[in-house]
Amino acid sequence: MYPAFPQPDHPTVDLVTDNAIMSQGMWNEISQLIRSELQNLLHPIFNEMNTKLEHISQQLNKAVPSLNKDLTDEYCASVVEEISESLPATTPAALAAFDKTIENNIHLQVCLVKFFANSHCLETVKTMKKAMPLIFGFVVADSAANKLQWKGSCRGKDKRPGLSPLLTVNAILGVTLTTCWAKRSEMEAKSITVPQIVSLIKKARTAAGVRHRADSCEAADPGNSSDEVEERGSNTSSQSHIALSARIKLIMEAVRHFKKKLVKSGKL
Question: Which stretches of sequence are listed as region Disordered (predicted)?
Answer without folding.
Answer: 212-240
